[in-house]
Design goal:
Elements lengths: L1 E8 L6 H10 L5 H6 L5 H19 L7 E7 L10 E6 L2 E6 L6 E10 L2 E10 L8 H5 L2
Antiparallel strand pairs: 1-2, 2-5, 3-4, 5-6
Length: 141
């Protein structure tokens, strides 16, 4: 995996989504991935920043005043596979699998400042925007 961006904050950031979107703008990520991770207008930016702050708080169990960092990683091709669109049939249902719908991996770090040094206290990683495979997945049911 390649590092796309890293960000460190002394407390839970209020502009994380904006910061990451700005970093992704100049990255080598596929354009569709950049679009999915970049808020489209001021309302979307405010909502994305609030969501990112909640995501960090709930994922790392922060009170808001601990130092945190975010590392964004990207794998060009999973296990050397070529990106492609393919179709699978499951009974009567046909599902299109879009390899270019992948997202970067996000690593969240919660730290502490102790004896004049920052130390990592907790690590959380994964995909903050899981792709819904069915309508019930998208609704949270």
């Amino acid at each position: 995996m390649k590092v796309v961006t890293t960000r460190a904050y002394l407390e839970t950031p209020v502009m994380l989504a904006s910061d990451i979107a700005a970093d992704l703008k100049d990255s080598n990520l596929p354009e569709d991935v950049k679009r999915r991770l970049t808020p489209s207008d001021d309302t979307a930016i405010k909502r994305a920043n609030a969501t990112a702050a909640r995501w960090i708080s709930t994922s790392l169990f922060t009170s808001g005043v601990e130092p945190v960092a975010v590392i964004v990683l990207w794998r060009d091709q999973p296990n050397g596979a070529e990106p492609s669109n393919s179709t699978t049939t499951d009974g009567d249902d046909t599902h299109e699998i879009l390899a270019d719908r992948r997202l970067p991996t996000f690593i969240l770090l919660k730290g502490e400042y102790l004896d004049g040094r920052f130390r990592v206290r907790q690590i959380c990683y994964g995909d903050p925007l899981p792709l819904a495979s069915t309508a019930s997945d998208a609704s949270g049911d």
